[in-house]
Amino acid sequence: MQLAELFSRALSADDLIGFVAYDGSRSGPPDAEVTIEIRSPFALSHLASAPGELGLARAFVSGHIEVHGDLHRMFHLLGDLDLGKMDRGTKARLLGLLVQRRLWWPVGPPPQEARPRGWRHSKGRDAQAISHHYDVSNTFYEWVLGPSMAYTCAVYPTAESTLEQAQYAKHDLVARKLGLDEGMRLLDVGCGWGGMVMHAAEHYGVKALGVTLSRAQAEWAQKAIVERGLQDVAEVRFCDYRDLAETGFDAISSIGLTEHIGAGNLPSYFDSLYSKLRTGGRLLNHCITRPSDDHPFKAGGFISRYIFPDGELEGPGFLMSSMNRAGFEIRHSENLREHYAMTLDAWCANLDEHWDEAVREVGLPKARIWRLYLAGCQWGFDINNVQLHQILGVKLDGTSSHMPLRPTW
């Protein structure tokens, strides 16, 4: 069996994807909308050392595999990349080829992988994990995220809305759910580049404080705050939320942070946020979730090694129960899954538009990591493998929630 056909069978491509290999072999339809090129024998050694998605990702990141066509479409055509489902004959042929060519281990360590040290979700290890993903390059993030510098799910008012309009709508939705009003104090934990902090201060007259574990984010945000003349009412601080001394906030937003907390730490996380709110104050938790508590989740090797080390996703029911046990009364929840797929599509387009600059800024391996990551995540939201929930809770004032009879947002 030739190499291209072997790869086709190994990936269960079912004649939907074309394959070409360095040995001159071809497989699949000649007019396929997506073609995978095996450019080097070391593509095989990556598969041998890490069967499944991690091995394929390593081969792609290091340039031993190339994809011609749309990466997002490739994920839809291939589906779940589980090489453990190969039939015995294909496994035997692949093993024989590896042994014959002495390609059992790749040469050199795969590039750009994260291996944080210390106890999982300790302050030191969390700082390493956050730095790996967020301290890449502010310039790179500007190209991918656009002017809003919002690295969380946008909310599209219409299918025709631009990314910037959708990010503005997301921040405004959070502000209205929190009931922000002039003179209030807002805490935004995991604030990123300060988008929510600046939106709340500029449009709602709120005094807003954001905290982030990324030094690069904090520096960028503080500069943007000064440029917009908001330094008297807005601040972004390089700080672990666990070390924040201030309390008595009127509202707290947590946008895209819970994924980094870990299930075992969620009780103390929500306890901490509850203690920082005044009575009657609201918490809006916005995060990626599993479709349900029963839906199995284990971060794949690619995401764990290249994107979000130590990342964990919980079901919406588990999150609501954790908030409830901390003392919050749950008042509203909604799923914005389709909006995240649209957001990722826009980020993919931005990266494609600035591809040459991105490669010069962060290097080809990192740029390829991001292209694969964004397209794969978009596919995950498309097929309901992951969701995005906003959950609103309130710290009761005795028995009063101070909530309107019907939602005003």
Automatic annotation (TrEMBL):
Keyword S-adenosyl-L-methionine in annotation: yes
This protein's UniProt keywords: Lipid metabolism, Methyltransferase, S-adenosyl-L-methionine, Transferase
Entry annotation: catalytic residues: C377
GO biological process: lipid biosynthetic process; methylation
Ranges annotated as spanning the membrane: none
Gene3D superfamilies the UniProt entry points to: Vaccinia Virus protein VP39
A GO molecular function held by the record: methyltransferase activity
Similarity comment text for this entry: Belongs to the CFA/CMAS family.
Name of the protein in its database record: Cyclopropane-fatty-acyl-phospholipid synthase
